[in-house]
Design a protein that fits this description.
The chain has 324 residues and is α/β, with parallel strands linked by helices.
Length: 324
Amino acid sequence: MEILITGGCGFIGSHLCENLYKKGHRLRILDNFSSGSRKNIEHLLKRDASKGDIQLFEGDCTNSLDVKNALENVDVIFHFAANPEVRLDICDPKTCFRENVYATYTILEELRNSPTVHTILFASTSTVYGDAEVVPTPENYAPLKPISLYGACKLSSEAIITAYAYNYNKNAIILRLANIIGARSQHGVTFDFVKKLKKDPFNLEILGDGTQTKSYLYIDDCIDAIETAWKTTRAKGNRVEIYNIGSENQISVSRIAEIVIEEMRLKNVNISYTGGVDGGRGWKGDVKNMFLDITKLATKGWKPKLNSSKAVRKATREIILSAN
């Protein structure tokens, strides 16, 4: 198939490109390099130099002309471009809305006029659930009350995608991702801990009270889950499916710190806690307890190979290696 991957030079997007290219698909990658990097797919571009099965478009998802050019003759869209920052002090509301909601709207406008595109897969987030009262949280949990602007923007995008799918006879697969970690990741608690300890190997400050407990999934398991979800919705029509993608257990921030310290082979590290806000959260909008029910996707034959702690340990090793 001819596939467009927005954000294809980013963390998850570049791993997705590797998988799709390996399966023989032709790729069109749209990225503005705000958080992604060409070096993440450089090896693919070199491998494909004589084939022409990969086209890289430097452009923005908020620019309709950029999207239109990248979308020519495409069958499927993997919309993974976004501003990934959950914290309000890092990403202001206007930027969050523009780079998440408005970007999605721009893509959908071009999708509805496309005679070839029949399916869009969207990278959403576990933060759409907010402080869920049911844990593990299934896809049909309600009401959805995100507590971060990032989660609200992702939920808004989900709603718009659903409406476009039904009104313009397209398929949509919404992927609610837990914390995805691994090589090439440039943000998140594991990356931050390694970065802090590289700077000061004797002191580590942890945002919040350290009891924040969440699900972490290794990138390879995430890509396998995305592929499984895609395979379940191949027929043309106005079908919308939502899947949780996460691990089978949780891990606390304090335990992540211990694993990172172990993998960096550090001794006598002084760990301090900021205390956080609203009962020990790391920041306003931080969901303190997140654990997704992945039963729905598991019934399709997918199962993560690594639990949260093993995923953190493997990701830490890769982050350390890339930092050396």
